[in-house]
Amino acid sequence: MTEPEGIVGREAQIDVLRAFVERAGRGGEALIVVGDIGVGKTAMLDVAAQHAGSLGFTVVRAAGAEFEADIGFAALHQMLLPLLDGIGALRRPHREALSAALGLGAASAPDRWVVASATLELVRRASVQRPLLLVLDDVFWMDRPSRDVLGFVARRLAGSRVGLLAALRDPAGCGLAHCRLEPLDREAADRLVRARYPILGPEMRRRLLAEAAGNPLALLELPAALSGRRPFASPGSPALLPLSARLNELFASRVEQLAPATRRLLLLAALDGTGDLVALQRATQDAELRDLAPAERGRLVCVDPQTRRLVFRHPLTRSAVVELSTAHERREAHRMLAVVRAGEPQRRAWHLAEASVGPDERVAEMLEATARRMLNRGDPVGAVAALTRAAELSPAASDRSRRLTRAEFVGVNMAGRLEAEAAPGASLQADVTAAFVLLNGDGDLDAIHRLLVRALEGDELDAFDEDVVAAVYLLLLVCGFAGRTELWAPYFAILDRLRPRVPEDLLLASRTMPDPVRDAVPVLDRLEQVIAQLDEHSESWHVRKVTLAALFIDRLSGCRQAVRRMVTSSRDAGAWTLLVSTLNFLCLDYFLTGEWDELEQLLAEAMEICDHAGLSLYVPVLRYDRALVAAARGDDALACELADAITGWAEPRGANLIAQFASHARGLAALGRGDFEAAYLHSSAIGPPGEFARYNHHALWVCMDLVEAAVRTDRRAEAAAHVAAMHRHAIARISPRIALLAAGSAGLAARKDEAALAEFERALTIPGVDRWPFDLARVRLAYGERLRRARAARAAGAQLTAAHDAFERLGAAPWARRAAAELRAAGQAPAAASADGSAEALTPQELEIASLAAAGLTNKQIGERLYLSHRTVGGHLYRIFPKLGISTRAALRDALAD
């Protein structure tokens, strides 16, 4: 296919882009054009846009601007502006969410992912009559909320008539198909130079080709500098500057040659970032738009013929315009833009802030309101920046301190910025910030508890004050970590003083976390309703509190979608505290549901973030997740090493619950290797047999560990007492998993075979127990052992085989060896894992992945659908193939059908 005029050496890439446009018009697709600065990414976007236009597409373009990166949804507004006529056809929640995010409505902005869903619906609707191509340039400079939304849309275009084409320097982490632009080869570079500069001499052309190194921008822009019109390097500088530095200086020199009126207009355009010609006209009374002509003739800017907006041809031009201006010129430009943007509070606030020289309370208030909107939109990092600037502009010391404290509070509790130096007692925010920093440092829990209780003194507490609720939530965590009865009374007294009522999510967490054995059952139905509504809820604190409530009564799986959205948004926003806490929720859920490989991948990311952000508070909790897997898989050395580290953190701080985590891991490792005496000592250290102490929720998680260890060490009275306590407290009502453990414990402790076998049978008929593969396999193992001793060899073989296969799939080697030994004692040999190629050997997740792969989906597409990385999907397939007795992807369909 022929190349467009002015472009050489890109035939293959142009074919790729044109084919992409045609496919996108039929079934929806996204593509990233990747390459270094100056390699021609924008030119390739232009080629695709022109081809789409010739095919009858609606083409919508947007570009990031360095100087509006702090303005939430600025790029999204730019992109959707031509499509806003269709917003009225959206469903009400989507219509309101998008209107609020774009500043078109008065409602508070919802979760970023509601905005993303609304955007996806809008572009899909816009493509019904004519296919739509979204073209995004300079994505690196787009504001974070817009990038999040557009990334969400890009991954969900299949089945539509929408194409999304974007330009990036580095595609790492985007997870989308990309077309890479390399430097031009020597022949193509020479053709380009000869076409643009036909009279350039041979020596100058050779020098240009050598120094430009195939970079098209350099090939087109350097000849003027090399010809000696302006010295390219200052005295004393190296003869050959790096290409990027040479281009920077070149653009600066071209801007310097412009008339003052043209430079003023370019400065306004660079700082505004929207390219709105009407805004530029309104922003200045002493310049005309015709003063832009020299910059247009110099190919520094152009007016997009479709959007009628001013576009900088290269980011280096925009940077040079700003860098060459004086501080006074920039302040004046921001002041004029603030007048033009009077109807856009967020933009106006930032422009006024940049225009301010000294303190200005009015501007500080506007920035504070902007920070609140950014928090509502899930951008805590941007909110910290706005609050910090608001503090700098505050005339009164009290307001300055309050805003800095708020910035520290948001940074610590959401973004993971632990440089806070808030003095306790200055305000409630300062107390919460100081408490979190102490909790993350060397502070003991009793001191932190006293600090928070004192901060919440008073007759009544406002339940609608977010600082009050944050303080109460942190106190809930402190009491839980401490695990001591005497700390809970002040907490519940504070809860009683909340007016007009305790927020429902906080109330649910307060009924399920402290003492689920006694308090959780009455609220289970309501909690399940709230969990079912999480997808529609916007507030990250709400998701955290509901997920905390779900953790201790085995409802984490219902929160997965909301938690995964929080992981994605927190990761993109750099909200490290939020990210690590939500990753931990997923890790605990993955352990219970047997997704241990995925757990270890999440743990690696979470631990890296903790190290990067200094979030030492979460390290022992994450070590617990890892220690459980290590214990179950028989890596006793690692499990004990992690348990020792957990204990070393917990004991000096009085964190009894965290210390129990270490005992749990040690006890589980001891059970696996058959050291039942050690298992009993560790399990009974969490809670003695025959009782479930008040406010000791972790005793639920080790109830069967304790009973099994007691039975194996001939402590049958203790085992029977613990089973009696389970019945007395009716713990089976809490969740199917707890019911499975309770029935399995009863089977283990029963003295008569008939009673034991009845309890095991009852355990296996509990609905939904297959969601907990490790716990279920342990009950099957115990059941098979009892059947073998009752001389029911065939029935024992069935249970032991199922247990063995489950342990093999999980990689729980010591447990698999125990099951195999029992099978051999029953006169049977354990089958080699999946030697028959049966799909029954696959875990539920492996079966789902295999089915999607058999349907033709790529690893990337499967990962997007299941919220996994493509590498994780590949790892699963690597294990699936031998289980099914196949060696190629093509054989999947037949293997599953068989």
Overall pLDDT level: 84
Q: Note the gap between the termini.
A: 47 Å
CATH architecture of the largest domain: 3-Layer(aba) Sandwich
Order of strands in the sheet with most strands: 2-3-4-1-5
- Largest sheet, if any? 5 strands, parallel
Rg is 32 Å
Question: How many strand elements?
Answer: 9
CATH topology annotation of the largest domain: Rossmann fold
What is the SS-derived class?
Answer: mainly alpha
Give the overall shape: globular
Strand content: under 5%
Helical content band: 55-70%
What number of structural domains do the residues give? 7
How many distinct helices?
45
CATH top level assignment of the largest domain: Alpha Beta
Q: Could you outline the blueprint of secondary structure elements for this entry?
A:
Layout: H1 11-27, E1 29-34, H2 41-54, E2 58-63, H3 74-80, H4 92-101, H5 112-126, E3 132-137, H6 144-154, E4 162-168, E5 178-180, H7 186-196, H8 202-212, H9 216-226, H10 243-256, H11 260-272, H12 277-283, H13 293-297, E6 301-303, E7 310-312, H14 315-323, H15 327-340, H16 345-355, H17 361-376, H18 380-392, H19 397-415, H20 428-440, H21 445-455, E8 461-462, H22 466-482, H23 488-496, E9 498-499, H24 504-512, H25 516-519, H26 524-532, H27 540-551, H28 560-573, H29 576-592, H30 596-613, H31 619-633, H32 636-653, H33 656-673, H34 676-686, H35 703-712, H36 716-729, H37 736-749, H38 753-764, H39 773-789, H40 793-810, H41 813-825, H42 844-854, H43 859-866, H44 870-884, H45 892-897
Parallel strand pairs: 1-4, 1-5, 2-3, 3-4, 8-9
Antiparallel strand pairs: 6-7
Helix pairs in contact: 1-2, 3-6, 4-5, 5-6, 8-9, 9-10, 10-14, 11-14, 11-15, 12-15, 15-16, 16-17, 17-18, 18-19, 19-20, 19-29, 20-21, 20-22, 21-22, 22-23, 24-27, 27-29, 28-29, 29-30, 29-31, 30-31, 31-32, 31-33, 32-33, 33-34, 34-35, 35-36, 35-37, 36-37, 37-38, 37-39, 38-39, 39-40, 39-41, 40-41, ...
